[in-house]
């Protein structure tokens, strides 16, 4: 049986109550730059390699916030990434190891759970 769609992921979304604050946090705290921004339309697309990361305004009163990361950032120096996030006052969790892969979780300004691995 053939694929029903292309064999790649085009983008991932994270929803926010305050998109402008979220955009500023991802720029200042995580160091991303903005590719496209349209606050009235409710989206901010960040410059990323590979899959696009898009920040969106909630459009529903039923907000579902996963209690686990829905994607993972990659770091060449995971210890430095962990330390720098802590130094910036970000809520960062302890490392976990799975063989040759290690990672940690952290929260953005609205409590979305994000992950970094190496």
UniProtKB/TrEMBL annotation:
Coiled coil segments of this chain: none
Pfam families linked to this entry: Glyoxalase (PF00903)
SUPFAM superfamilies: Glyoxalase/Bleomycin resistance protein/Dihydroxybiphenyl dioxygenase
Boundaries of every VOC domain copy: 8-118
Name the record gives this protein: VOC family protein
